[in-house]
Amino acid sequence: MPIPEVSKIWMDGKLVNWDEAKIHILTHGLHYGSGVFEGIRAYDTKEGTAVFRLKDHLERLFNSAKFYRMEIPYTLEELTAAVKETIKINNLKGCYIRPIVFRGYGEMGLSPLESAVCVVIACWPWGAYLGEEGIKKGVTTKIVSWQRISPKALPTQAKATGQYLNSILAKIEAQDAGADEAIMLDWRGFVSEGPGENIFIVKKNKLFTPSLECGILAGITRDSVIKIAGDLKIKVEEKNIAKEELKSCDEAFFTGTAVEVAPIREIDGKEIGKPWPVTRKIQDTFYSIVKDANPKYKNWLEFV
Ligand code: PY5
Predict the structure, then answer these.
(1) What confidence category does residue 292 fall into, taking pLDDT thresholds of 50, 70 and 90?
(2) Nearest atom of ligand 1 to the alpha carbon of 41
(3) Other C-beta atoms lying within 10 Å of the C-beta of residue 195
(4) Fewer CB near the terminus (10 Å): N or C of the chain?
(5) Dist CA 119 CA 107 (whole Å)
(6) Which atom of ligand 1 is nearest to the CA of 222?
(7) Which atom of ligand 1 is nearest the CA belonging to 96?
(8) Residues near 295 by beta carbon (within 8 Å), at least 6 away in sequence
(9) Active-site residue among 137, 159, 171, 233?
(10) Ligand 1 test: best mutation among 64, 198, 222, most atoms within 8 Å of CB?
(11) Which residues pair with 117 in a beta bridge?
(12) What pLDDT is attached to residue 74?
């Protein structure tokens, strides 16, 4: 689906017209994937537009940048203000926000240190990543043959653009098999995550999710779900999950900013989960936070 155009994009401190938000073809980040980014959502809550866990996302952006020795030439407070400004200027209520920090035009060698660090913030309206149907009726998945990048090859906790080639291959393999989304195993064969989302399974009313050593991105939605489950008195364990445990679970669901909380309906052609009693409890609480500004979790909302 094409990106719905809005009016302005924030580029290195200036608001530029959507059509003029361009970079040089010899940008380092384009050639080598030397960039880091975030995916954030703002929601049209009943108390106004609010960005979900903005500070946590921006902190992760700064942390990702550190791995690649990129010094972001703005403070966290400045980027917070820039995100809000970009939402406001575009008259957006609920939207997806994509800050990206990348090595710009300068050198063509692999050493990135001489290339400028560029910062861009774009936002646009973006519906459910795996479709509204997916949120309601669950998504189909395939356990793909591509392994999730190993923490020995790349810092898996960094959200870096180049790392997403791994996710792209996984996504294509799943789509070719007719599935909505991929599930990747880690370098040891344990369950890791989806191309752009974390995974949880439910077994006997308890939640299990791969631990950080499984090469996953430390998702902010994952963290939110762990806290929500705790409040709902549902036990959560982070551990190594074998492929067989995944396939024989009672329920499973994805979490992520783009995907939100999406039940899994099928794994490798086998139906699972319906009617997702535990998943629905988590999902309902999540949406009560982001849509109705559930007072208990209000500190997760940054009002614009
Ligand atoms: N794992 C990977 C590899 C991700 O890319 C993402 C987020 C997550 C997990 C979930 O993290 P969080 O809950 O912090 O969002 N993916 C991006 C997103 O905006 C990009 C998806 C296309 O959801």
Answers:
(1) confident
(2) 19
(3) 22
(4) N
(5) 18
(6) 13
(7) 19
(8) none
(9) 159
(10) 198
(11) 103
(12) 98
Mean pLDDT for 181-185 is: 98
Residue nearest to atom 5 of ligand 1 (CA): 196
Residue with tokens 């030397």, as numbered in its chain: 34
Per-residue burial over 150-186, b if 16 or more Cβ lie within 10 Å, else e, is: ebeeeebbbbbbbbbebbebbbebbeeeebbbbbbbb
pLDDT at 147: 97
Q: Calculate how far, in angstroms, residue 240's C-alpha sits from the geometric centre of ligand 1.
A: 20
**Spatial separation of the C-alpha atoms in residues 252 and 28, rounded to whole Å:** 39
Catalytic annotation present for 159: yes
Which residue is associated with the tokens 């039940």?
263
Query: Rounded to the nearest 5°, which phi and psi values hold at 88?
Result: -65, -45
199 pLDDT above the threshold of 90: yes
Number of helical (H) and strand (E) elements in the chain, helices listed first: 8, 17
Q: Give ligand 1 pocket residues (Cβ under 6 A).
A: 39, 167, 193, 196-198, 217, 219-222, 255-258
Pocket test for ligand 1, best of 130, 197, 255 (most atoms within 8 A of CB): 197
